Each structure stands twice: as C-alpha cells, then as structure tokens.
Amino acid sequence: MDLQPLEHRVPPPVVALLCALLAWGLDRAVPEARLGLPRNLPLALGLATALLGVALDAWALWTFRRHQTTPNPLVPQRTRLVVQAGPYAFTRNPMYVGLALQLLGAALWLGNPLALVAPVLFVAWVTRWQIQPEERVLREKFGPDYECYCARVRRWL
User: What stretches pass through the bilayer (predicted)?
Assistant: First the structure.
C-alpha cells in the first residue's frame, strides 16, 4: 500500500500539541477577541471538557490493551482485530475524539473564539492524514467485518 507523504507520519498527540500551541498563540496575538465571561466560567468549562477527553482517551487505551491489540496509530497494519467494545461501540476513533475534546477544553479555557480553530484544524488534519489511511488499511485487512462496523458506528460521533 502506497502512503501519501504525510499519512501516518505525525503522531496525533503531536498534531494536538501543535494545535494547542496555535490556539495559545492566537489568543496571545489577539487578546481583544476574548469573550467577557466571568473569570471562573471559562476555566470550569475548559477543565470539564478537557477531563472528559482525557477520560475517553484512557478508556479507549484500556480497551485496546484488554483486547491485546496495538494502539499505535502509526502502524495500523499491526492491528490484530477490529475492537468494537467500550467507546468503540459509539465512535470508531475515541482516542482522536478525546484529543479533540482536550483541544476544545483548552479553547474554552482561553475564552477566545479564535482558539476554536485548534480543534477544527486537528479534526481536519487527523481525518485526512490519519483516519482515512487507517481505514484503507483496516478495510484491506478485515474486509466485510470492518465494512459492517463502519456502517454501524460513526467515524467521529
């Protein structure tokens, strides 16, 4: 299988970190765009959203480990089976959803609408350069079983 130049090359947590830095940079560059919310509200909303993302990531990793398959997104060909339990029953990509929630939490904490570009960019990047190539590999490896799973469970939410 031929991969495009960026497919499976940049680990999604690194992409998420770069997007978080972008959100922070946009907030610092345009502080006047911040919403005039009460001081603790952005912190509470951001923290709750980010913690939900961390919990989803932990649940997804635990589920992969329990099924003894690799959680490494850079080598989908090493996957032993299509995990359909736990968070994988309602999203095919709970680890990426978790990272997107963490970025959304950071954007909420900043209280700057410009920071929302971070989770949007993350979702776009990961969909194109990580998820679509993963899906090609899994379709080739698991065939109809994976197709049935895709028909039943959404890519994101």
Answer: 12-30, 42-62, 99-126
pLDDT tens-digit map of 17-61: 999 999 999 999 999 999 988 889 999 999 999 999 999 999 999
Pick from 88, 82, 11: which is nearest to 57 by CA? Answer: 88
DSSP 8-state code for residue 3: P
Written as one string, the DSSP assignment of 64-79 is: HHHTT----TT-GGG-
Question: What are the start-end ranges of the H helices in 67-131?
Answer: 94-110, 117-126
Which of these, 123, 131, 126, lies nearest to 107 by C-alpha position?
A: 123
Q: What pTM did the predictor assign?
A: 0.94
Name the band, by pLDDT with cuts 50, 70 and 90, for residue 1: low
What is the rounded distance in angstroms from the CA atom of residue 38 to the CA atom of residue 26? 21
Vertex 127, ends 2 and 87: CA angle to 5°?
Answer: 115
